[in-house]
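[Automated response] Your request has been received and processed.

Submitted sequence:
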Amino acid sequence: MLTQIDISQLATIQKLHLEIEIGTTVITGETGAGKSILIDAIELALGSRATGDMVRTGEEKADINLSFDLSKLIEAKSWLERHDLNVESNECIIRRTIHKDGRSRSYINGTPSTLQLLRSLSDLLINIHGQHEHQALFKQDTQRDMLDKYAGNNLLIRQVSLLSQQWHTLSNKISALLKSHKESDSRSEFLKFQLLELEELQLQQNEFQNLDIEHKQLANSEELLHNLNLALHNISDDENHNAISRLNHSVDAIETLQSVNPKIQTWVDNLKSCIIQLSDTESELRHFLENFEIDPERLKWVEERIGTLFDMARKHKVAPDELFALQEKFAAELTAIDTSEERLNELHKNLQIVENDYLTSATKLSTSRKKAAKKLTQEITQVIHELALPHGQFHVNFFTTDIAPYSPHGLEKIIFEIAMNIGQPLQALAKVASGGELSRISLAIHMATAEQHTIPSLIFDEVDVGISGSTAEIVGKLLRRLGHTHQLLCITHLPQVAAQGQQHLLVEKHHEKHATYTNVRKLNAEEKVKELARLLGGIQITQKTIEHAREMLEKNVS
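Generated structure:
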């Protein structure tokens, strides 16, 4: 739920801090006081279009911060986790900064965010109803989700979505296999020819690397023998000056002095270690020299073999050391082609199973939706009649045309339709022209689906347009009742609606030194009475009006 609103330098607001409570909060104020500025600020923070003229005159930028408690918002927390946006606590802070040159920046939990991401998250946090740009209730996806939640279709939705995903995966595999199957005959002949040519070479893994090393040795064999013999001579063969003999003499020279300095033992050990390593090297050199011989015929063969590998590599446009891997690749592809018919049959069998399972689950989903739609239609129509729309008719329509095959959403599109007057055809909810009517219809829908609704914070603007008297009181009571399960903010002009709020915010405007200031404050019990009296009596507020206002409040205390 929304817990705090902080605004600075926005339009006529200089600085404002509000703590929003759970339940129904009503917002009232004089005409022109700027009651909608709170709603505008919330919409701006959640990603609506911003312009530089929204910044307070004389200031560089406006700043809006919204704080939400996510302790019961599982979907919103999951969304933040998926986007790695810091959900260590149950708090989510959204910030929007608007500069006077029109630039703006948005942040989610301190991390810069695009408006697209911000709008995606906002749909999980708050729902605004009235004459505003973004109304989730217009969206077919929202309408479908509301019906499914009302019907308790969560398990069926998951099953249909999973089967749809499996169907598309299998279909893509079959399409790819069929496409390659058309070219398989010519490709198979090509691969067989290439493999035969490569197999005749009797390639070995790492062969080229080993040949390269051997060629270097054979091509430089005389220099190699000379230098290795010289090294062996210096290590041990020179009777007077070999390295091992000199190291042994060094050990003898200092070993007798171990008692003089403790470090000497370390030096002795190091020298002995050098002698051991040098002796091992000597043995390896002798072994190599004993088995090494100058072989011009072998050198010639190695050079010819390297040339052959280079020629084949150029033909296939690969490096010589990649020929063995290329042969394996060709062999694997040929095996795949040879077994493609078998794999295609297996994929078709699996696809048929998935199609049957999908149709079974999707049909169950459709049946459940239609059953729930009848009940939902009756409940919403009943509430609409109570809200001074006596001829209004609500209807849930199911469209089966233009549905993508094996859609993750089932076999039909869900569209909420409404007719406002007798003889008027049903039309999509998005085409309802009146903002006041739309607000009341939205209220009716949310009342009917209150227990299933997962968006906890709802804002109603102009919910009382075109109504008065007993109808206004009904609207107020419905809002108060909805406030038992949701957090509501409602802008109203009617005392019958305002009297039902658990919290009451008053919007005030005043002028000072050629500047205009808007302030919003929470009213205490006595202030509520005075504000209701103003709404009831206008300019002249009598004692009778105050008593009437007090009576209205006392009657609505729950």
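Summary generated for your ticket: The first strand starts at residue 2 and ends at 10. The chain has a mean pLDDT of 86.
If you did not submit this request, please reply to this message.
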